Amino acid sequence: xxxxxxxxxxxxxxxxxxxxxxxxxxxxxxxxxxxxxxxxxxxxxxxxxxxxxxxxxxxxxxxxxxxxxxxxxxxxxxxxxxxxxxxxxxxxxxxxxxxxxxxxxxxxxxxxxxxxxxxxxxxxxxxxxxxxxxxxxxxxxxxxxxxxxxxxxxxxxxxxxxxxxxxxxxxxxxxxxxxxxxxxxxxxxxxxxxxxxxxxxxxxxxxxxxxxxxxxxxxxxxxxxxxxxxxxxxxxxxxxxxxxxxxxxxxxxxxxxxxxxxxxxxxxxxxxxxxxxxxxxxxxxxxxxxxxxxxxxxxxxxxxxxxxxxxxxxxxxxxxxxxxxxxxxxxxxxxxxxxxxxxxxxxxxxxxxxxxxxxxxxxxxxxxxxxxxxxxxxxxxxxxxxxxxxxxxxxxxxxxxxxxxxxxxxxxxxxxxxxxxx
Length: 422
Known about the structure:
Largest sheet: 13 strands, antiparallel, barrel
Helix content: 10-25%
Strand content: over 45%
Number of helices: 3
Structural class: mainly beta
Radius of gyration: 22 Å
Shape: globular
Oligomer: single chain
Strand order of the largest sheet: 1-2-3-4-5-6-7-9-10-11-12-13-15
Number of strands: 18
């Protein structure tokens, strides 16, 4: 079995290398005949944002998030951001991006977050068979994450190679029902560690890297999550994304996005339910655990057998559903947006807490459709959708200030963030 998995990994690596080499060869003439870029692809206009934002997150509670963002510092491409949350969730985030080791060619990014108090929802099963309120809330008393990436950008950002590394840990210390009432407090909670290395390529045959209005974009990557201890599994994920942009009139665009993501476990970790209960810090054997505790253990077993891809729900995929609503080992996702651009004038503004240069205001209408399952055969047996609208401001600093409202079968969600969904 190990030899077979090793052969599979070597085959995948060879295919990725082959695609990369062919892409480089094709891009030599491609650069000469590529769609002309509308504007400079690396921004240097400075901006900043200082904003205290009160928010309410279902299952987590009320908090105030203090945000500081500075883009293109001192006429460079360097961006810095910091966030501090206080309330029912507490912690901070520091983010550094677009640090150019070689100007407009070799780009570094780094991110660190530390959360001292938070919560996540945990539905009774993975997949798409659960109901809206069929979940518990997992209290987290410590969560750390570090992320770093380096990107080689060529041909005016038409071709990029990148590698990313992320590691983190989190400690679950209690289980609450969906109204926040404590059901279980862990006696000896232990930190669960994760680690992931991603490599990939991006081919961008569009008129703009940030705000494409015509062309095609292809993104392929492989992520490997090794065993972080003797209990964990070893698995990898293959992600493929295709975007198509069709111009409508002089400024607007009809955009399409399709994504596939598949996980494959190469070495299964510990799946004995009693050992997992002890590993999590639960004071029960599986047979006598409560149903909420069994659901948590069952999640861990399925995750170690099948692996886990990026969830559906949240800011970027199925936007009417909360973060991590649907989880599984295989996902198919489709989204389309009509982006109506108006107020297409360069408009500098400088408020006390916000400085930038608006280049376009965009009104978007979108539709999301997705399915997730433990096996590929079960994909599309059940699916979910979201429809919605939103306002975006595209800026000369490279930020996209976005507010999207989406609705679906389980209600509606509002997203406020600083980037496109895809």
